[in-house]
Design a protein that fits this description.
The protein is mainly β and 112 residues long. Helices cover 5% and strands 58% of the residues. It contains 1 helix and 7 strands. It has a 5-stranded mixed β-barrel. It is globular, with a radius of gyration of 14 Å. A hairpin with a 5-residue loop joins strand 3 and strand 4.
């Protein structure tokens, strides 16, 4: 079992896939800048999950990303209610803790 997904460690994500959109600035929180991008992870069926990734700008400075790069992301699942617009909607994303270029097989594992 991968060390990130030990049974007693919860809210851990391990994702391996292809960058589907280049990172763009998202917001600033507590003086830290964040960027967002999409990660495409193929399922066994051949369909792809497109996952929203939120990454600290500092993390992306260490590992610049371009659309099409194959990467591995570890992090935590985060959610919030977006109350802009006519009806609130739940927004789910992965807050990246590590990002690395990788040729690992596709992986979409989340332990809550």
């Amino acid at each position: 079992m991968n060390t990130i997904l030990k049974p007693m460690h919860y809210n851990r994500c391990l994702l391996c896939g292809r960058v589907a959109s280049a990172p763009v600035p998202s917001h600033t929180n507590h003086g830290r800048d964040f960027c967002r991008f999409l990660l495409s992870v193929p399922r066994l069926s051949g369909q792809c999950d497109v996952l929203h990734i939120l990454a600290p700008q500092q993390l992306l400075e260490n590992q610049p990303l371009r659309e099409g790069d194959r990467i591995t992301v570890t992090g935590q699942l985060r959610s919030y209610n977006n109350k802009t617009g006519t009806t609130p909607r739940l927004v789910i994303s992965v807050l990246a803790r590590t990002i690395a270029l990788s040729d690992d097989p596709a992986c979409n594992t989340i332990r809550l």
